[in-house]
Amino acid sequence: MILIAKERNKMSLNFIERINDSKELRQNLKLSHLTIEHVAIDLNTSVQKINQILELDHVSPEDPWILKEHLSNKLQSQGIIGYPYSKLVGDFRDYWFLDTKKIANQQLSK
Questions:
Q1: What does the alpha-carbon distance between residue 57 and residue 59 come to, in Å, rounded to a whole number?
Q2: Segment (H or E) for 34
Q3: What pLDDT does 7 receive?
Q4: How far is CA 65 from CA 2, 31, 55, in A?
Q5: Which residue, among 27, 23, 7, has the nearest Cα to 15 in the 3D structure?
Q6: Which of 29, 32, 20 is nearest to 51 (CA)?
Q7: Is 56 left (phi over 0), alpha (psi -120 to 50) or beta?
Q8: pLDDT for res 11
Q9: Between vectors from CA 110 to CA 47 and to CA 35, what angle results, nearest 5°?
Q10: pLDDT-based confidence at residue 35 (cuts at 50, 70, 90)
Q11: At what angle do helices 62-77 and 15-32 cross, to 10 degrees?
């Protein structure tokens, strides 16, 4: 039971971690030379939703991962090394609490 409780703590971020994740996503957006509008079109969503994800404001745990993966793919296709993430690290498939199908299909929350 203790192990499960420790694992659950990995699902949520504290205030500083949320600020850092937001900055890291924004930095990679900037490096990609994409606009928020372009990303919204790519991910079939609204500019408001992308801004919510960038601020980590009322989003599902999968949403930042979807944006991270999208930006990483865009950066890689341009031959650009992305800004490192402090919490959105590794393969999303390794995190038991994430819905990996939603991420793989770029299915953002409503």
A1: 6
A2: none
A3: 39
A4: 27, 17, 13
A5: 23
A6: 29
A7: left
A8: 54
A9: 20
A10: very high
A11: 30
pTM here is 0.88
Cβ–Cβ under 8 Å, residues 85 and 21 = yes
Read off the pLDDT of residues 60-103 as tens digits, 9 standing for 90 and up.
999 999 999 999 999 999 999 999 999 999 999 999 999 999 99
Locus of tokens 């949403």: 63
Task: Name residues whose C-beta falls within 8 Å of residue 18's C-beta, 6 or more positions apart in sequence.
Answer: 56
Percentage, residues of the chain above pLDDT 90:
84
Report helix, strand or coil for 25.
helix
- The string of DSSP codes covering 59-110 is --THHHHHHHHHHHHHHHHTT-PPPPPSSS-S-GGG-TTS-HHHHHTT----
Q: 93: which 2 tokens? A: 């498939």
Measured distance CA(81)–CA(94) in Å, rounded: 22
